[in-house]
């Protein structure tokens, strides 16, 4: 038996899936188990461990007593739990796929070696909530499973062919080139998964697919996909730009940070209290970790925000409630990109696709976006489907009353499966 472990270090969670390789060409690896540790940003973390063959999850909802306080300790907790599972022989894990958000110039997955590890480490400043935590998990996995090959898969790779005028910032081009200061874009493993399954769902060739996809989770982005290629994405040099997120400000005027505190020069100095794998300046720390929903409402949980928000009145009347304000800010920023990408695609859009923890679970968010874009020829939302989505089978679900126009779809994205598929299909390459 040959097993593939796929590990996805998101900003607020660690999602892990174990697959068995299927020795048949073009067959996806089959799921053995999934595990997740969520709310790492706002403890206590929640731990889940679910065998594919059963529906019963091992859950510890109150993990206050468990020593999980970052991605490394979350992974250790998973490994401890795996050891107690007599049905799994961890010696059979031959490959470990790691989601690494920033790959810089890497446009293909790479096997982890001294050299590639240090390359990813150097990029940590450009993905302060992601690359450092992913590296800590890579290190822990090499120690715990020394016979398995660790492979890094990059979120930025999906956007490697962005048009020059989209990826270029209007700054000195000598400096931009020398320091790699350009738009990279992220959530690429999720967009690759979305592209594949939505094309399948629509019976379209992947190379002919035109969609506006949004991945709205703790980190949030929108991507324009034309003829199967990313032509624009709301995240940029780092995952900070574009939409706000759980703890991220999203786009602000770049000079805002100089006016945020009175002793502005000190904002730009390094904060020695941060771990050695996460070198962020105080300014970056404020915009990446002390902003977003957390700053606006006190919670990083968008589910809690929609529960407390008053969404019955028009957006301009109800903003004394911070949760209502946070909700309308997210909708406003998403619409900004949906509008722009609708034009970038010249109106030739097969579907708007909702994905990521928030967009897959918030009927309120989907309703607000659907109402706003309806006049552009998108299908009107089918409320019966929108409200009962959690109980519906399927990876791609139509939530619009399709009448031949543009569709509204929800895609249950799976970055772990995307990595495992790619790893499995190139097994000989990785074994060489
Ligand atoms: N019922 C819900 N409605 C809206 N948002 C939700 C709901 N449940 C969870 N969420 C949001 O989903 C987020 C997790 O999204 P996910 O994409 O899994 O995160 P990550 O970015 O860490 O991968 C949570 O932080 C929470 O804000
Ligand atoms: C790129 C990014 O923001 O990822 P996540 O949503 O998993 O934090
Ligand atoms: Mg994620």
TrEMBL record:
What processes in GO biological process is this protein linked to?
Answer: acetate metabolic process; acetyl-CoA biosynthetic process
Its UniProt entry gives the catalysed reaction(s) as: acetate + ATP = acetyl phosphate + ADP
Marked site: Transition state stabilizer: 187, 248
**GO molecular function, a single term:** ATP binding
Tell me the first and last residues of the signal peptide. none
Q: Which residues bind substrate?
A: 99
Q: What is its EC number?
A: 2.7.2.1
The protein's annotated pathway: Metabolic intermediate biosynthesis; acetyl-CoA biosynthesis; acetyl-CoA from acetate: step 1/2
- List the Pfam families: Acetate_kinase
By what name is this protein known? Probable acetate kinase
Q: Which organism is it from?
A: Hydnomerulius pinastri MD-312
């Amino acid at each position: 038996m040959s097993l593939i472990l796929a590990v996805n270090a998101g900003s607020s969670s660690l999602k892990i899936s174990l697959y068995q390789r299927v020795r048949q060409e073009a067959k996806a690896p089959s799921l053995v188990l999934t595990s997740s540790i969520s709310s790492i940003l706002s403890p206590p973390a929640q731990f889940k461990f679910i065998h594919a063959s059963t529906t019963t999850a091992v859950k510890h909802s109150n993990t206050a007593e468990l020593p999980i306080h970052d991605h490394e300790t979350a992974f250790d907790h998973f490994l401890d739990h795996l050891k107690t599972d007599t049905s799994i022989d961890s010696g059979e894990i031959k490959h470990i796929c790691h989601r690494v958000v920033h790959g810089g110039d890497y446009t293909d997955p790479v096997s982890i070696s001294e050299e590639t590890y240090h390359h990813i480490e150097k990029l940590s400043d450009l993905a302060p909530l992601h690359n450092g935590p992913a590296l800590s998990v890579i290190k822990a996995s090499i120690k715990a499973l020394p016979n398995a090959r660790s492979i890094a898969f990059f979120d930025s790779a999906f956007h490697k062919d962005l048009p020059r005028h989209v990826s270029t910032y209007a700054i000195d081009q000598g400096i931009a080139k020398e320091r790699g200061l350009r738009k990279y874009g992220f959530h690429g493993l999720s967009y690759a998964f979305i592209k594949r399954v939505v094309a399948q769902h629509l019976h379209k060739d992947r190379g002919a697919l035109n969609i506006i996809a949004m991945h709205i989770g703790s980190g949030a982005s929108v991507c324009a996909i034309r003829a199967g290629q990313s032509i624009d994405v709301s995240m940029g040099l780092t995952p900070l730009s574009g939409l706000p997120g759980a703890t991220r400000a999203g786009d602000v005027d770049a000079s805002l940070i100089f006016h945020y505190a009175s002793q502005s020069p000190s904002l730009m100095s390094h904060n020695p209290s941060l771990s050695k794998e996460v070198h962020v300046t105080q300014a970056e720390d404020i915009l990446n970790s002390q902003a977003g929903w957390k700053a606006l409402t006190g919670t990083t949980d968008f589910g809690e925000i929609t529960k407390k928000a008053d969404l019955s009145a028009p957006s301009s009347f109800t903003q004394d409630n911070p949760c209502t304000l946070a909700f309308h800010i997210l909708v406003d920023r998403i619409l900004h990109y949906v509008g722009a990408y609708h034009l970038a695609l010249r109106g030739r859009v097969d579907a708007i696709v909702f994905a990521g923890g928030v967009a897959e679970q918030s009927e309120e968010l989907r309703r607000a976006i659907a109402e706003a874009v309806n006049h552009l020829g998108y299908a009107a939302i089918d409320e019966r489907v929108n409200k009962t989505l959690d109980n519906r089978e399927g990876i791609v679900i139509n939530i619009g009353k399709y009448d031949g126009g543009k569709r509204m779809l929800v895609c249950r994205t799976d970055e772990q499966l995307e990595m495992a598929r790619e790893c499995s299909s190139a097994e000989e390459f990785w074994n060489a």
